[in-house]
Amino acid sequence: MLTTVTIVQKGTEPVNTPTEDKSVYTLQTASKGRGIPIVLTGDGFTQTEIESGLYAAVMNKTYENLFTEEPFLSLRDYFNVYAVTAVSKDNRFGNGYHTAFSCQFDGGNSSGVSGDDNTVVDYISCVNGIDIENTFAVVILNFTVYAGTTFFGYTNTQTKKNTEFAISYCPTIKDLYSEIFRTVLIHEAGGHGFSKLEDEYAYEENGTIPASEITQLKKLQALGWAQNVDVTDDPKSVLWSQFLSDNRYASEDLGVYEGAMTYIKGAYRPSTESMMNNNLLGFNAPSRQSIYRRVMKYGEDKEPTYEDFVTFDLQTLPPARIRKRSTLPSTTRPFAPPVFTRKALF
Fold it and tell me: Residue 154: which residues within 8 A CB-CB, separation 6 or more?
């Protein structure tokens, strides 16, 4: 029998959480709009670890981290946030081990992570009345490794249309309370999973973006996704052209910078650095606009104008940070791009 528990969060204070497999507890109830669903769960947590309070600590910290960057911080009241307990037989991953979502690491030089999407859907479906098509799920792996991957592009079996559903797989990386776990989680879950933003980094070895990738990008952009990259360097026609001629954003280092979607040539990004590049300096203005649009669309059933966003944004601008290209250690090499699945959700 499934158990549903509502918990009132007060900062990061410890709370008692249900330990039974597939138990659901509420971390936050939306106080604005119709409530955009986020469902958190974990892989590789044994019954003993769950009963010790580790699982609850991981879910609570994940929830807290998701709302530490603008505009999520100022828009958090639009979200319903749930956690679902997932009991694993083992707390190790790989051949011979059994975990709730069968997560696997690609290994080698890859930072890729994958899991059993169908089982993830089964667990999040335990949330009473959940709107799966507009949910984004976050699976935290009980493992400290630098990795993370987001999957989206799931379709409704009957309508054949793309849904907003996404799954972000993210280990605790260095440790649960590390800055790198926080920023990778925001990049993967907030950037890719909820917002459907593209990566803004590039690898020299990838060369020029191929025609097939451009075609795929155009399809994503037709859905309102991937609004933070483009394949034109014309400042008058690039997707974020309004920002480039707006003096209110003159201090944000916005422009048309070559190198995005992992390709060094032919793809362009709005800023030298950002949360969608090396996880630094927060989300740039075009990305913040994309997040705001999505929250207004699914939270308020509203299509905001550019000025609607600017009015909101100027009131909630993140703290100024030094906009300097950083050289990161090799252990923080950017991840592979998100995966567009084309899988049926139902």
Answer: 117, 162, 163, 165, 166, 341, 343, 344, 345
Query: What do you get for the CA distance between the two ends of the chain, in Å?
Result: 23
Residue-wise pLDDT tens digits, 16-73: 678 999 999 999 999 999 999 999 999 999 999 999 999 999 999 999 999 999 999 9
Buried-state track 315-334, b at ≥16 Cβ within 10 A, e below 16:
eebbeeeeeeeeeeeeebeb
Backbone conformation region of residue 35, classed left if phi is above 0, alpha if psi is from -120 to 50, else beta: left
Name the token pair of 14: 């410890």
Assess contact for 312 and 254: CB atoms under 8 A.
no
Q: Give Cβ neighbours of residue 199 (< 8 Å, ≥ 6 apart).
A: 229, 260, 261, 262, 276, 277, 334, 335, 337, 338
Residue 340, CB half-sphere, CA atoms under 13 Å: how many?
A: 13
Cross-strand partners of 169: 139, 149
**CA-based max dimension of the chain:** 59
Q: How many Cα neighbours within 13 Å face the side chain of 285? A: 28
Which residue type is seen at 180? Answer: I
